[in-house]
Amino acid sequence: MSELFSGDNAVVAVMALAYIAFTGWLTVRLRSRTSAQFMTAARSMPPLVVGLLMTSEFIGAKSTVGTAQEAFNSGMAAAWSVVGASIGFLLFGLVLVRRIYNSGEYTISAAITAKFGKSTSMAVSVIMICALLAVNVGNYVSGAAAIATALHVNLITASFMIALVSCFYLVFGGMKGVAWVTMLHTGVKVIGLGIVLAVALSLTGGVQPVMQKMPAYYFSWDGKLGFSTIFAWTFGTVGAIFSTQFIIQAVTSTPSADGARRATFYAALFCLPLGFVLAFIGVAARFLYPDIQSLYALPVFIGHMPVLVSAFVTTALVASNFVSVCTVALAIASLVVRDFYAPMRQPSQEQELRVTRWLSLVIGLVPLIFVFFVPEILKLSFFTRALRLSITMVAMVGFFLPFFASNRGATAGLLLSAVVTTAWYLLNNPFGIDNMYIAALTPLAVMVIERLLLRSAPTTPQARPQP
């Protein structure tokens, strides 16, 4: 790919490093000093900031590069991968966010404990940790692609750069530091995407030439994807938002339940236009460079910019990736500490903060093991959403259908769903049935069978006391 790019690599590298240094200094200044600040920013974050933070989780580098990659292959319909997040945040705010906030918990597993029991809570925690680790594998792949093409380094070097810098942000910043620095990251990312869109429109001569020469499905509502895939994407994204640990953690960092709801509405508003921007960038890349690897559908436009502009856009992609990696790793660390370490060791606040920082470092490095085995980012992204969707289905039963709220049924349903959904994904969705549907229906089927055939009584365990 290097032959597609021009410009002074030194300028790009200096600007990116200067930005990293500045935001690193800012993270240290705003760092979390207590465990409460590290996990939930001591419930002090403004709803607008939290809305941006949640947006960054679902439109980070993985979705940014991944949506353009899918649009390269399937057309503008790839925008549904992001539009689904807008729908999900809106529904989350209307249906569930108050219940989550008022539970007083900041992990999805702890909130579910009150409805089902400890074994279900542990199953939720393990599945969520695995799903989020896979999310960060996708984040590393997409971020490395952008950095490698812009700086002319190999994917291994680019991946290690992402891991080290993101770990620094996370270990020192926690929720408090990451949230505030995300405001800057998000602003830079949006401006960068605007520049890429402008370059794409300039090179194509506008939208009309692309529409005239590309196959008609590239501008249809379902593209090459079809209704089944689009519905599965939207359904899975909505379900993932309802249960993703970092989303739960983010909304509980606001001062009130009303603030938490407003944050979800802000996130819905921010997501909506970005999906169409990313999709057109991917389609434009297919129009102009049909023979490139689809992974480079967005980064390919960097080579057509003046060196200072290309340096800024590269920095924007880097910023996008750092936000995504940090928020996901923070969510994993919170689950490990809240559900495993703290109950076993009963640490002081100082000990908990110290252990959380060390765990965050390890969690940030683990995805490096798997980054070279993921060729299709968006498919991985939706598989991880499928795993989280199974948790949402169980949570919704607990909140709204307590008759079926059996600890045994919920635990068995979650574990079976994780195994079957993973197998379905690895087999490339047999019979044309998306793994998203498998993830949604399996726990429900197990819970219904267990309740009606085995006649188990619904459980109403007490919530765990706050540490």
Features:
467 residues, Sodium/glucose cotransporter, disordered C terminus, disordered N terminus, mainly alpha
Describe, in plain words, how this protein is organized in 3D.
The chain has 467 residues and is an all-alpha fold. It has one domain (2-386): Sodium/glucose cotransporter. Helix content is 74%, strand content 0%. It contains 18 helices and no strands. The protein has helices spanning 9-29, 35-40, 47-58, 61-74, 80-95, 97-102, 108-113, 118-151, 155-204, 207-213, 227-243, 245-251, 257-288, 307-345, 349-365, 377-400, 407-426, 435-453. Helix 8 packs antiparallel against helix 14. It is globular and about 65 Å long. The model is unreliable at 1-7 and 462-467 (pLDDT under 50).
Oligomeric composition of the shown chains: single chain
Morphology call: globular
Q: What is the top-level CATH class?
A: Mainly Alpha
Q: Segments where pLDDT lies below 50 for 5+ residues? A: 1-7, 462-467
DSSP strand content: under 5%
* CATH topology assignment: Sodium/glucose cotransporter
CATH H level, superfamily name: Sodium/glucose cotransporter
Total beta-strand segments: 0
| Sheet/helix structural class | mainly alpha
**Overall CATH architecture:** Up-down Bundle
What does the largest sheet look like? none
The rounded distance between the terminal residues' Cα atoms is: 52 Å
Radius of gyration, CA atoms, in whole angstroms: 21 Å
Q: What order do the helices and strands follow?
A: HHHHHHHHHHHHHHHHHH
Number of domains: 1
Task: Name the average pLDDT.
Answer: 82
Helix content: over 70%
| Helix segment tally | 18
